[in-house]
Amino acid sequence: MTATTEMTNLISQTQQQTLTALKQAHDLSIRAGEIAVGLIPGDAPAAELPTPKQVVESTFSFAGQLLEAQKNYALRLADVVSKAAEKTPVRTGEHTQS
Prior knowledge:
The protein is mainly α. The chain has helices at 3-39, 52-87.
């Protein structure tokens, strides 16, 4: 297996793990919302509850923060890979004989 293939596989695995973790976070968030809704007394004034629009805005704000964190991670990882590439000699296809 070549280094390129190994790196591609590592990146793919990391992406899948991140996506799985994000989906798990979504599921937990939905479940927490369901539990929270269940805790609201039937006679609670609606004015005290966030509107659906506020919930959506809050959720997408959080999603934006997650996306920004992922971007920062990807950029840091790109820096690490770039540094590794700088240390690796470029192959020209020419073979030297000893």
